[in-house]
Model the fold of this input.
Amino acid sequence: MEGLVKRFGGLVAVDGLDLSVRRGEIRGLIGPNGAGKTTTFNVISGFFAPSSGRIVYRARDVTGLAMHRVAAEGLVRTFQHSTLFLEMRVRDNVLVGRHLQHRRDLFTALRQGGAWSAAEDRERVEEILAFFGLAAYGDALAAELPYGAQRALGMAVALAAEPDMMLLDEPFAGMNPEETRRMMELVAALRARGITILLVEHDMQAVMGLCDAISVMNFGRLLAEGSPAEIRRDPKVVEAYLGSSHHAA
Amino acid sequence: MAERRTLGAAFALSLVVALAALPHLLTYSQQEILVFLVINVLLVMSYRFLALTGEWSLGHVVMMGVGAYASALAAKRLGFPVPIAMLAGAAVSAAVAWVLSFPLFRMKGFYFLIGSFAAGEVIRLLWKRFRDPFGGPKGLKRIPEIADIEWGVLQVDFFNPVAYYYFCLAVVSLSLWLLWRLERSSIGLTFHAVHWHDGLAASVGVDTRRYRTLALVVASAFAGLSGALFAHYVGAINPTRFNIEEMVYVLTWAIVGGTATFYGPILGVVMLTVLNEVVLRKMGLEQARPLVYGAILIAFVMFLPRGLESVVPRLARLRLRRPGSARA
Ligand SMILES: Nc1ncnc2c1ncn2[C@@H]1O[C@H](COP(=O)(O)OP(=O)(O)OP(=O)(O)O)[C@@H](O)[C@H]1O
Ligand SMILES: [Mg+2]
Done:
């Protein structure tokens, strides 16, 4: 990703960001509130077109592609706020995530009728539900799940798309320490399956514990980059966080 | 399980018998109403198919009209046999919907609603403006009916409402079966996903625009088919028949019945037709139909927003709880 810029009217939310993520790593993307992290995700995933700059994924230029085309490239994001098909069953939520794994035209659909889901597909859905500890909830409506389980379901939907790279936007937000610990294990397990991860998160302990490398953003720009240990010691980073907490106070 | 099977089969069988016997219990004018009712079932069910994606259109009755005009012209001008003309009518409706999808699906929700209304009005204007071939404000007359069948002992005259009712029943049943299959397929699931959260759907690879278009095109095809069924029975159509007032009736059927279940809109259209034809007509209040429909619509939105269908499970539970009929 090179020289990425996203403006909203006069506001420059992302201002010439350069970022490159190595295949197979967990990269943290941190920064104070309003630094432009979610906006960066929105631009990478095709929710917004960038004002300028270029995004290259696996040697393919994906700049400005529509969201569903980016997903088809193997790059799938989750959302900062619980974003689910609330009125649908948990199992069906994950099944929608399998969208890219199907041939879908009218005639296949007519033939399939009610029994459309191939056995292997069903199996994979159950597997993913089990992976995220949601097996017991399969028939419940997504809206009925406790908060932690909703966060997990958001990731389950994304994983069902069989991505090569996941963009996780604050997966631990609002979780208690026990839930966070479990979710960290799951994220590590995802990487062990060969999925590259770009992680936005405010829980510093989680970020430091999980990430191979961390990029820090402030005011839409890259402030620092390095290993967790380097970042923890970096005076600019410390100042940015202190500075922003001064503003907040 | 087996018990449920037999119950289901028994229900289906009695439904078939009832539908087959129904016209013979009615007067001639009631038989005609029955024909329109069956056609309207297809219309409102095709409307529900579009609503699965969460979009509500105000142009659906105009799409019915597109099918009616196209089928009538194909039979009248091009000499197509009527059943073929009807299929052509459905195809033209689908094609027009596809073209309209380009401007319309730049919008969502309320803007789509207004856009679909505007698009419909443009089409109605074209019908009024071009006397050739659409016949202007007076519309098309002497639309051919289905050719009589005379195969030895089997003689069918489709001018007869009972014969036409059976024909419509067959066409509509087949159409509903197709819509049902589609809804239960992966496509139906994707429609729901697009409805409940199009951003999330797109994030896992759903081309939401494409699925909205698919719903609109399929819904319009079946609306067009219902229009064709109408045109070749009545024999005359005009732009007024497909105006916004008719659209409000369709909306009322859908809202009164509810759109969450497959049977909801059918409940709606049957109940309101019975109300309309039996109660209002008896009381000589037919003129007040728009007023009564409006009042019903408001009452349902306020007091039973999920429609008649939401009452059915409650009734079923009541029945189960009644001593004697309780099984478990
Ligand atoms: N759709 C939008 N329209 C206008 N401004 C926006 C929009 N989205 C974000 N912004 C602005 O862009 C800036 C960056 O926001 P962004 O959500 O990317 O921050 P963030 O780093 O994700 O913050 P947080 O840690 O609070 O989630 C903020 O000032 C925000 O108000
Ligand atoms: Mg954010």
